[in-house]
């Protein structure tokens, strides 16, 4: 069985990383236009770097939870037949042991040059005058897909969705495209579809089955039932 799993902020929330729309969370303190757009970075790179330095520190202080561990366990059983596509920019999947993980929105632990577009492992703190190690231009930025930019791996993701026997969405709001359209893409190609979420998402009716509850509870339960089945 070939499985494609989409994960969103809900899977990392129990590790202490706030979801995108949490009241009082990091995103509420700054207008998105200031910290998550190319224009915001051009206007105030110091603010943007400070914002992502804080997010990077927050991510590194967090630990994978039982949901991350369960997906790593599943990959250990079925190997390359499992792909995790994550909207998250933390590395909790990898730290739990998952190897086949595509970060469609980039990653906090990666840096990118706005001039030459080379990428590399990010230091714990980044600053506006940091030179690119490849072209030496002081144009380094977080390797994060900002609003108005194209997510990574899109062509490859659609290829895998078209080959999938099962598509599972975990901890996503169901209203952010293009990821919100993955369920229909997979279903149209003949895959069975399952949503695992704290509560039904806006797109829950598009799934064959929906299970609700904390990710740390329902994801391990699903993985165990799948492996026993």
TrEMBL record:
Residue ranges annotated for the Deacetylase sirtuin-type domain, each copy included = 1-229
Protein name as catalogued? NAD-dependent protein deacylase
Q: Which gene encodes it?
A: cobB
The residues that the entry says bind NAD(+) are 8-27, 87-90, 171-173, 197-199, 215
What detail does the entry give on cofactor binding? Answer: Binds 1 zinc ion per subunit.
> Can you quote a single GO CC term?
cytoplasm
The cofactors required by this protein are: Zn(2+)
Q: Does the keyword Zinc feature in the UniProt annotation?
A: yes
């Amino acid at each position: 069985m070939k499985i494609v799993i989409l994960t969103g902020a809900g899977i990392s929330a129990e590790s202490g990383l706030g979801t995108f729309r949490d009241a009082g969370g990091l995103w509420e303190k700054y207008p998105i236009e200031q910290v998550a757009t190319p224009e915001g970075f051009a206007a105030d790179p110091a603010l943007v770097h400070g914002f992502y330095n804080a997010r990077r520190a927050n991510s590194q202080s967090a630990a994978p939870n039982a949901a991350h561990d369960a997906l790593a366990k599943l990959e250990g059983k079925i190997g390359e037949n499992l792909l995790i596509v994550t909207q998250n920019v933390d590395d909790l999947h990898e730290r739990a042991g998952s190897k086949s993980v595509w970060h469609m929105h980039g990653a906090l632990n990666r840096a990118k040059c706005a001039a030459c577009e080379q990428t590399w492992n990010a230091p714990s703190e980044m600053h506006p005058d940091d030179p690119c190690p490849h072209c030496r231009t002081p144009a380094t930025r977080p390797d994060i897909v900002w609003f108005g930019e194209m997510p990574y791996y899109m062509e490859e993701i659609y290829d895998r969705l078209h080959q999938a026997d099962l598509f599972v969405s975990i901890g996503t709001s169901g209203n952010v495209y293009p990821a919100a359209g993955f369920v229909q893409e997979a279903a149209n190609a003949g895959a069975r579809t399952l949503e695992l979420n704290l509560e039904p998402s806006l797109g829950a009716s598009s799934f064959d089955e929906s299970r609700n509850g904390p990710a740390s509870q329902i994801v391990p339960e699903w993985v165990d039932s799948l492996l026993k089945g």
